[in-house]
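FIELD: query
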Amino acid sequence: MRNICFYFEIHQPLRLKRYRFFEIGQDHYYYDDFQNEERIRYLADQAYLPTNRIIAELIRSSNGNFRCTFSISGIALEQLEQYAPEVIDSFKELAKTGSVEFLAETYAHSLSSIFDANEFKQQVKMHSDKIEVLFGKRPTAFRNAELIYSDEIGELVSKMGYRTILLDEARQMLGWKSPNYVYNHEYLTKLKLLVRNHKLSDDIAFRFSNQSWNDYPLTAEKFVSWLNAMPQEEKIVNLWMGYEALGVFQRPESGIYDFMKALPYHAMEQQISFMLPSEVGKKLETAGSISAQHPISWSGLEKDISPWTGNDLQQEALHKLYGVSERVRLCNDKPLQHDWLMLQSSDHFRYMSHKDAYGTNYESPYEAFMNYMNVLADFLERVDAQYPTTIENEELNELLKTINHQEKEIETLEEELKKLRARKSKKEN
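FIELD: result
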């Protein structure tokens, strides 16, 4: 039997206000509240709320057989809580159906997996904690920001306890292989790798309303016929896209919602079912290993990380930012730590790209760079006030060792306390 795995990404950065050089040291608030609220409200009304209603109806009318997955960054969750709490409520209702899975990712939708392994691990835990608090279940499958993946990142993810990771179809990794199989990590065979079918995903997300497209109009019947024409041994088709595809990139009048409503029924008529990533990893056999020695992503034709790291502006900003990561983690200043997360969003570096500044509202990559660096200069001054750069790295490392040791002791004591409470509860019963 063939299966479809639907996954939707939700992420919006906290956009920066125009921050001038003379404001450094004077103004420690960096964000354009009006623009952020306006963007979230627009997406909530045009995409998130109406699509959530349709998905809830599909789950109900199919007796839970329609299933789909979401990855919502911590930054997006915070903005939804502040500006559109009804969206959070609608996701809570979807979570109760048992037909929706929420993935783990970096809280800040950051590039920490490339630049700072400790920060990466901390953000993934922070994000999973947030998902568990909001939706009642801890994620068991993982997707990185921008679907960035390498063998080394896979190893980090595996050590954190995840057994399924999502990545994109990149020819430098797959070669001649089809994305419609489950694979495993090159040397960690228990780590299952799911690969996005980028053609079929983009047919829905980007080409659906394009009247010059050879396959326009795309109907549910036509789409299912493409799935049926695939070799029988190809058991999984991963359809992954940004959630804005439904309602914003593809407007309601394009027929996208009618397509989404019809697709599950035409699929199920043809014995095609829907699976969640964690189910795919557990239930389907792997077709061998694949390897990505260098990081890949889901961006552009190259499927690499150059949209965020490909020029000197980006490299300079990233070097300055992650150069203070250890000092920030030592701070107890909550506003400073929150700004640290917000400034790591991958979008800020995408806006500095010369070849693909997707989503930018700056007139040039250089303008994006200058604005970000002004903000970063003020942020670095605040970090320096807490832990001056005159402190030697050896002294910092000793402080970090002490803190890590204390954290481990606390975790051990908490585990012992849980066991004692469990024993006491058994005795009382």
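FIELD: remark
The two ends are 47 Å apart (CA to CA).
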